Amino acid sequence: MKFIKFTGALVAAALVAPAASADKLDDIIASGTLRCAVVLDFPPMGSRDANNEPIGFDVDYCNDLAKALDVTAEIVETPFPDRIPALVSGRADVGIASTSDTLERARTVGFTIPYFAFTFNVVTNADAGLQTYEDLADRTVGSVAGTYEAIRLEEDIKKWDKGGSFRSYQSQADVFLALSQGQIDATTVTSTVASAIVQGGKYEGLSMTGEAPYDVDYVGLIALRQEYGLLNYLDLFVNQQVRTGRYQELYEQYIGGDAPRLTVDKVYY
Amino acid sequence: MFEYTFQWRQAFRALPQMLEGALVTMQISLLSMALGITIAVLLAVGRNSRSVWLRAPATAWVEVARNTPALFQIYMAHFGLGSFGIYLSPFVALLAGITFNNAGYLCETFRGALRAIPDTQMRAGRSLGMGQAKAFRLIVAPQMFRIAFLPTTNQMVWAILMTSLGVTVGMNTDLTGVTQALNSRTFRTFELFALAGVVYYCIAKAVMLGARLLAWRLFRY
Hints:
Helix content of chain A is 39%, strand content 25%.
């Protein structure tokens, strides 16, 4: 009788007791939903189609990840400056948001191995008469606050010290609006965005003026720094996307041509 | 659930840069107050005028300024005017937006103060041989400013807080702009914005304290 009571109490305790502290990966699987922070102002990585539905490389990566986890994907639209607050406040589980893997940021947030690599172009207002990146030294330029290229461009304007000024805007759309109005003379953006915008014809008078001489910008998926289980899973996910050919497939779909290598020569990431 | 470990050292190291931003914030809000008060007095006189040519534009200004968001006004000053080839820098656009908004609210403050002053004050001045303008300047205006003084200081605090909207038009040298730039580098969002919040709070408190001291000094009998 005592044994039955004891077993009964044990079963009851197991049923009502909270689950042992699960990590984020377990939480996602248990909840059945993967919430991805994605920037939808950054075509072709993330944008909205004619029906206002999220589309783009990052959106598809979120869907692929959800499929791998056997859960439903939920896109949490997040402007560039809000990527970390979205994770920390629990609005999103993972950031698939073209986040440059700087060492300064890695003190705060956990990065995976690179899942994409960007090069940069200068986009100018055709009336500004600019030819090279160095021509920007005495001009008014701008970019999206919080992006790798914004940080580099602002640094260079300060370094040149030739009377140029830098403005940071909250969205890519504001940068192109300011550029097409002539409020700024140029911006530097990823080559993917540059070709999408210039060919898209939505903004008048914009043209690509050569490359911006920045290092290749490797971007990683992001999660909370202490979520090792999730970060390990995401690393393997990125690896699998490349080796199964899905990375190349999506690159061809959204950008075209050969996808950039995600490894750095002579170093193990 | 809030999963975050605070690293205050990094934020405190950024404090000197943020204080430089706070100076720009003060500069914009003081300028916007000086311009706003000047325009508001004119608008208040216009709104109290019998002439429809003075009353209509003053009323329109106040209606738009008070019934549309300050963010919209600042955005329009930068991108809206930009569509017509009129380019205001982020600093000027922010200043113009806040001044427009401030003038609308201050006008109502001054109008209320004007109404609180009996007509007999103006008549007394006129009976002493003063012209209308002189009687307004020497008798009515000082009383109006006295009544409107404390509400005006509230508006000054509002102006300081409104400068944070400048980030939407590319302003990156004021306190919010500097904080946003630091945040994008380090991702230490909470520490940096908490610190910026404390700086805003201190500025606002200092302004209110200063205003009370000034009021005590100016208006004691």
